[in-house]
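Can you give me the bound-state structure? Components:
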Amino acid sequence: MSALLRLEVIRLLRSPQFLMYLAAFPVGMYLMLVKVLDIGADDPNADPAAVMVSMATYGSLGMALLAAGSIATERHSGWTRQLAITPLTTRAYVIAKTLSGLFVVPLALGLVLLAGAFVGEVRLDALQWIEIIVLVWLAATPFAVLGVTIGYLAAGQAAQGLTVGLYFALAILGGLWWPTSLFPEGLRPFAEASPAYFAGSLGWDAVDGEPVNLTAIGGLAAWTVVFAAIAAWRYKRVAAAG
Amino acid sequence: MTDLAIRLAGVRKTYGPVTALNGIDLEIERGRVVAILGPNGAGKSTTLNAVLGLTRPDSGTLEVLGGPPRAALAAGRVGAMLQDNGLVDEATIADLLRAFAAWYPSPRPVEEVLERAGLTAERDRRVLKLSGGQKQRVRFALTLIGDPELLIFDEPTVGMDVASRQAFWDELRRLAEDGRTIVFATHYLAEADAYADRIALITEGRVVAEGSGTEIKNRVPGRAVHVTLDAPDATAMAALPGVTDLDVEGTRVHITSTDADATLRALLAKHDDARDIEVGGVDLEAAFVALTRGEKVS
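Here's the bound-state model for the whole set.
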């Protein structure tokens, strides 16, 4: 499997345009919010550090989701068929895809945090920075798995549309664009049980100096299991239809 | 212990209303080079996909190297080259071969495989920059890297230029000499006749004839008559006694006849310019047409 991971890394590093485009969007959004719109100047709902964490989380989830979501393209191109006639197992392929999704997370995460520290003038303890990096990175796990799931749910263009659609929907629902405190009362319970909200909570709590949010970690683990179960079920359907 | 590399017995596979495999029976002995020959849509690819465990048959028995298909693949005993399989565009040829080598218990050295596939000069080029024929050679190299005992090729020479094609068959012959079992699907009769020691003729999801090229030709009654005329007239030729099939190439006429003697007598009576006359058994193409007649041939 390490051989496959090596191929995945080669693929990602030698096609940097896609990654840079993906990573540039959240950092651009962050700079626009804090510099152009001057958010947080007189709004207690919008602490610049929390906005930084929101955008870092938003970027990280997207990287994991889209990198792992390349399964859909690879099913279309016949690469998965090429792998299927080797001793390599599907399990190894899916794990390699998930890990490659997590591998690219630091690019978006790092860009937003750097912008926060040097442009947004966010001041936090060293420990808080480390906590944010580690937790937000790990919080991308269910999204890498969701990318795999979409890869077995849809193919080609449909999968791309579904991925981007779900990405925006989950990011907005999870309060990464606007805090869930601004949501209608009826929507909040759903929003605050969604995977992007759990992911964001880890970073927001770190900014506030709260202890690590175990509820959020449990919630993310649960979502990981749900997405993996859907992927396994779909994979069996796809394989049986072959 | 069986000496069969592949055994299919009564294997059926349907895709909705389409019957791809209609109770196919096929036994392939170890060490053979076998061509699976048939028109497009006959079930060649489905047969190979079933052997590779990519397609699960609806019913029937299927054994590869004495066990289920996935077990043979997992043990690294099977290598296969399928049509249009994707590669990693960003990787170089050597990257791909090194990765694949890691998945097999006893791989061949990367440099040796590069040379066998004629890719030594391109080893550090990215897949994205390769031509269609070069990519096909890469797929061939990936088939060899695991040093498999059973090799399966689906329409291997499609998209290859003449030189690549020749190199491919030369390499295949070397692999066969090492005692490997080789199975290839093709719709080119000449390839089956030239490179396989046995041919399984498939139409509509079943084997309609199986044997050496000669045996298959002998299954078709009739003789082939070849003759050169100054100005052949197809209509007049077809009206000769016993003629069942006719092919005119310039001044050369190829006739399949149920009664070659009667055909020749009538021909010579009318055409005193007839020359270079040859009479023999039907060729594989005529046998193919006869054995698949009435079926869809595209």
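A couple of observations. The longest helix of chain B spans residues 162-177. The interface with chain A takes residues 49, 52-56, 73-76, 78-80, 82, 84-91, 95-96, 98-105, 126, 139, 142, 146 of chain B (CB under 8 Å).
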